[in-house]
Amino acid sequence: MSALRCGRGAAGLRRALWPKGYPCLLAEEGKAGEDRWSAPSPAAVTFAGSPDISLPTVLEARVRQLQAEGTAEEVTVKRVAVAQAPEAGGIWPPRQAPLGAEGAVPMLSSRWAQKLDKDQHLIEKRWQQLDGKLPKMVEKPTWEKHLRTEPRLLSRKLAGQLQQWERKRPQSPWEEQLARLLQEAPQRLSREADEGSESRLEGQRQKLLAFLECCLLTGHLPLAHHVLVAQHSRAPQQQLLTLPMYNTVMLGWARQGSFKELMYVFFMLKDAGLAPDLLSYAAALQCMGRLDQDAGTIQRCLKQMEQDRLSLQGLFSAVPLSAEEREELLRAVRKARPAFSPQPPPPPPPQVNTSPLLQEIYAKDPSVSYPKLHLSLKELQGLFRQQLGVEMATTVTVESVEKAPLLTEEVLQARKTLAALRAEWESVLSLELQEIKESEARAAAEGRPSLFPYLCLLSEKELVGLLLQTLQALPPHGESLLFLAHELGVRVLKRKRLRNQVEELEQRYSEYLHLLASDTQVAEPCLPRQHWEALGMPEAPPEQPWPMSVLVQLGKQLAEVLVRAVQMPSSLAAPRGPSTLIPVLYHVYSFRSFRQIGILKPHPAFTQLQETAAERTLIFESTEVPMLCPPLPWTSPHSGAFLLSPTKMMRSLEGTQQHQLLLERCPPAELHGALDALTQLGNCAWRVNGRVLDLVLDLFRDKGCPRLGVPSPPTEAPRPPEGRQASPADKAEMRRELARRLKVAREMQSLRADALYRLSLAQHLRNHVFWLPHNMDFRGRTYPCSPHFNHLGSDLARALLEFAQGRPLGPHGLDWLKIHLVNLTGLKKRESLQTRRDYADAVMEDILDSAERPMTGRKWWMEADEPWQTLACCMEIAQVVHSPDPTTYISHFPVHQDGSCNGLQHYAALGRDSTGATSVNLSPSDLPQDVYSEVAAQVEVFRKQDAKQGVRVAQVLEGFISRKVVKQTVMTVVYGVTRYGGRLQIERRLRELEDFPQEFVWEASHYLVRQVFNSLQEMFSGTRSIQRWLTESARLISLTGSAVEWITPLGVPIIQPYHRDSKVMIKGGLQSLTFSSSVDTNQKPNTLKQKNGFPPNFIHSLDSTHMMLTALHCYRKGLTFVSVHDCFWTHAADVGVMNQVCREQFVRLHSQPILHDLSRFLLKRFCPDSRTSKSMWVSRLKDTLLSVPPTGTFDLEQVKHSTFFFS
């Protein structure tokens, strides 16, 4: 931090901003219209701020000054010449004049003169390095001249045929050779590999296939062919090659009509012992069609295809080809069989979900009136064009809401310096990227996959912009190199050039809007997905994910480019020191959670420069911000949400394939319920609550208010303890205190950045209507795609949003607003709804005061559990009360209904547990039941019994057992929290109690967690038996070598992604990165995670199913509906209808034999025939699965009449 403090104050910063001996960054020569960095003549090289002083003059003056400070010997000061780089712009290094040359000035030397000489030499050396890179920019890459096309075959017979045919090429056309070659029977080389090596091979295969596909995508087909030849020519490497790899390269040559090269690939395919499939034949025939070959060769090819039991019709129905490729394929086929015509695809079977839960949703009913948006067709079309522009630009620039600084000379100079540095960095980064590309291309030319095609996915300008954005967003305390590498790799993947047909999309989307616009009608009411599918246009095939190792390796390479290239004058850090170039980023090691990790950290002087400049722009990826038009309806696991940016229906770690494969194999109709629910959630239009936003911004720009959830700026972070003379024990305490304060400072920085993104996006969207497209996690739980600004965040985040489409309150809307307000305060939790309404009337003066004078009045709203949402509700009620007729008031405010410990509700319903059902409000009652208070009361009973028996810790806990102490543990037990995790939760609550003796915290937390589990066992006996059955089933499934799978009642296939970690190492560079990969389906499952994860994940899949059913039925009734998992939102006027739907669908869901269906599925999936299985685990698994826990006597119909089930 000492370097940072050197330049504090206006004068100090000005000194830091004017580098000595480094004119190129801050010079501003040149006439209007010329390149800002065009090189002037030697005499014109000047220092910023002193336009009349040339560089030689300054150097000579400096030497004379140093000469006066000391005596020394006679030396020669070299005059400086400045050269101009051809066509590059910029000032290039001064050249040294030879000793004794004309202009050499004899001077007296000293150690200071030598120091000056050394500083100048360092700067010259850097420019010489850059100068040496320029010729490489204009040279044609030499690696392209040495790419191989002819393969080296391992089979002597095939190698002989290839040589013979090459010698007789004029007499034996390649097409005839192909026909003969296809008749060769494949002889697969024997390959034996153990499970571990097979897993490693699979990872290498994924990398190689991704490399080949990326080469085709970036126009480097000869390079892909060369690498395939090189891999095939080595027997050990050939086991990596698979049929899709050969097909990928063949299809590339077929598109170019290069039959000779395609023939080489066919030779390799046969040499590897592989049999061609439909795609192989499609490539060959397509190429023949482009070359207009004779019918005889094509006929022999078709005959061989039939002998291989491959259908000719399958070429047109089962192979994913573009329209142009299908045309060339058909031309070739018709040359041999003129009467052939591809059969139109058979009409798909009725695409109707057969789930009994969805019969009503998909029943034909002309009287159904689905909700429409409040916008006209013309308005929506305009919004579509705006969103299209955003996605084609790939990024969105947003003005920051940080307090604008006064535009002092210091601030202006800092911004000017940053702009100059960035302009220089852009050129340096471009040169570095070119050098890296050349290096990676040479590596690929040696026959091994490299990063070259991935670096070509984006232009150099785009990559430079991405790197500079990363630098700008780097926090002062730095970031893990592994995290940065992964993020950079993912961002490159997301920014791949868009290949969609924009014109076709625009036409289809315009037709789709007729279903949603307020001023248009469609012939027959239908769901958005159904309407979109009826408009035609086939979907693009899903994109294959890149392996995690590729993403990290690519990102690591880019991060290292950033570290090497981005430098700044040392004068920014030490104005009085020598002028050299120093890195902006430093690679250091630090301990995080007892692990040593590599961190990239910005230089404190650069951080200070950024803070002083206080630039007011933030840059987001287009997929990180809400959409400006309704999202595309979800029609498949890989198609929906954004217009051009590919998005997965099921979010997962990059490189994961198992979830996507399950979804792709699932019958399309079985996914309709989930697809339509996601579409419905995304079609809700939102707007920003401007009144709340203004108040939050005032606090944010001041000093924040952590009590209200507005993070304080870094200037409010605790300062490091002052150094002083201390004993070793005191020093150790000071080190611990320093670590604690640094951790707090990092947390404050993170919270502040999160709030800055959220508030800046809110301000950016203040006067817009926007949408939040949704997808789901592997359990089926739904989330908005926009990570920074959505309704799933904190109290503050939720208060900033309201529905864009309003509805009249009606006769009961105001009552629901009052109930909602009291719910948000956290008061009256054990009271009836009528009592809550009465309480709202009793405190109406406080409500109105909060709305009218939120920051200067009595501030009643600040004492609420959810203060910002409480304030927003106060403002809404005030407007309603002041309106002429509350029933006609148009309200945009969302009202929430929360489940009462929803996980336990599902467990109680599964087990028909009457006692548990009553505790979580499944049974009707006059007052709400509070399970947390009941558990606390039961724990208190146990405590009193133990205290009477003289248990010391039970006596100490007298008066300290409360609802708050046990709530988190009770809430999370249902989601699989262990006793260890529960003890930590209780320990945190006990430490918050000022009066509790802290020396008993550890012992008391152990005691309490045991009693909480015992209480739950007594109160929810059915719940615990189901939980144990699920856990044991998952353990045994894992021991058989499989990951746990199941299908939700809505038809969504689920698989748990918990496998044994395999370490992946990426060597070289700044450091070797090692990370755990547990996504490979060939790896053994992690038994501990599988068994602990199954109960909570299964319950999450049930609560997601309940939410989706509620969403679909609310949409059918014309309601606006969104959710935060088990918290359902709608307009105040529609709360009654939503409550009815919510209860009905919960009863319908749990009326299904969920546990028995699960048992049958698991038996079929994991115990197909236990009599032939030699594994004892399979036998034990079968016995366990057949022992479904018995159910109790609770009547589910009571839920329909329970007021506090969701309230």
Automatic annotation (TrEMBL):
Residues covered by the DNA-directed RNA polymerase N-terminal domain: 385-683
Compartmental location: Mitochondrion
GO function term, MF aspect, one: mitochondrial promoter sequence-specific DNA binding
Keyword Nucleotidyltransferase: yes
Catalytic activity field: RNA(n) + a ribonucleoside 5'-triphosphate = RNA(n+1) + diphosphate
Annotated keywords: DNA-directed RNA polymerase, Mitochondrion, Nucleotidyltransferase, Transcription, Transferase, Transit peptide
Entry's EC annotation: 2.7.7.6
GO cellular component term, pick one: mitochondrial DNA-directed RNA polymerase complex
Comp. bias intervals (Pro residues): 711-720
Main function: DNA-dependent RNA polymerase catalyzes the transcription of mitochondrial DNA into RNA using the four ribonucleoside triphosphates as substrates. Component of the mitochondrial transcription initiation complex, composed at least of TFB2M, TFAM and POLRMT that is required for basal transcription of mitochondrial DNA. In this complex, TFAM recruits POLRMT to a specific promoter whereas TFB2M induces structural changes in POLRMT to enable promoter opening and trapping of the DNA non-template strand. Has DNA primase activity. DNA-dependent RNA polymerase catalyzes the transcription of DNA into RNA using the four ribonucleoside triphosphates as substrates.
Assembly with partners or alone: Homodimer. Component of the mitochondrial transcription initiation complex, composed at least of TFB2M, TFAM and POLRMT. In this complex TFAM recruits POLRMT to the promoter whereas TFB2M induces structural changes in POLRMT to enable promoter opening and trapping of the DNA non-template strand. Upon metabolic stress, forms a complex composed of FOXO3, SIRT3 and mitochondrial RNA polymerase POLRMT; the complex is recruited to mtDNA in a SIRT3-dependent manner. Also forms a complex composed of FOXO3, SIRT3, TFAM and POLRMT.
Similarity comment: Belongs to the phage and mitochondrial RNA polymerase family.
Name of the protein: DNA-directed RNA polymerase
Gene from which the chain derives: POLRMT
